Amino acid sequence: MSARRVIVMGPSGSGKTAVGAALAVDLAVEFVDADDLHPAANVAKMAAGDPLDDADRIPWLDIVGRTLADLPGGGVIACSALKRRYRDRLRAAAPEAVFVELTAPRAELARRMSAREHFMPPSLLDSQIAALEPLQADEPGFAVPNIGRVLEIAAGIAQRLSAPSTEGAPA
Q: Considering only CA atoms, which of 152, 138, 129 is closest in space to residue 51?
């Protein structure tokens, strides 16, 4: 793979930003938080406690996919990518992208969401969990439990991404 492109995915509170930023350091690539790419209308909708629908998400996913594809040295993007069709859309823009799905128990996700300042209120967690379609065996990537130290989790992901048997291959 000439330029590594990784999407760290999962529901709100799964640790995408923290793990993604640490992973980007380990891989020596740029990090982008897809939350920063949301149009103002999406942020306002979520801040009001309303979940996004596909009409809101699709243009944003196109921006996320193009952003990842346009990173000249590769990169890591933290993006929920909750549904397979969203991941397919991201891969249409960045075909070599590999997904890392962060998992954690619902109670831990809720605790994290309640402890942070973010436009996504904890009241939207259940809609995120309901929308989540975990990575399938034929998708490029793998799931990782995000319970523990962020730097250790990121280092483990970087090691797994560098292993010849997993680089760009389905889980």
A: 129
